[in-house]
Amino acid sequence: MQYNPAMNFEHLIQINDPENPLVESLNRDQLWQGLLHRVENPIPFLPGLEAFTILERQAGELLRELDFGPAVIQDRVTLAEMHWVRFDIVPSEVHAGGGLTIAIEEPEPDFLFLRFTYQTTLASDPNSEDRAYIEYVKSAYHQSDIDCVRIIRTLAADGFPQ
Known about the structure:
Layout: E1 7-14, H1 28-40, E2 51-58, E3 61-67, E4 72-80, E5 84-89, E6 98-108, E7 111-120, H2 131-157
């Protein structure tokens, strides 16, 4: 992509905890199917998204147009099957660009995590007057990622309806 990200951050969300019977476990395939669902039907995952179109499709890559009403953006999605999905916003007059990678991690058998890694165009100077805004954005992304996992859990419980 042609953008120069200024702020990078990442976080982990634990999916399984074999030591906690109250957490419904997902297997790697269910997690992957959930991520594919986010690629193929992003509407439940992106608040404000009114419509989307897949413009191009080739092995391991898609180009999508996302219609948020007042703004329409394109993103390129690349995939490494059963490992990670990457979303790169194509820079335009409407959006400066950015990226998100969601990777499945399994440091031990049955301990699954999703790592969300963001590259944004926000200034990352810790002395910046925008520090409160940056923290707000990070918090919003983290909440969105928690919602993503919740949606994947719901889809898995429903058997991933098409």
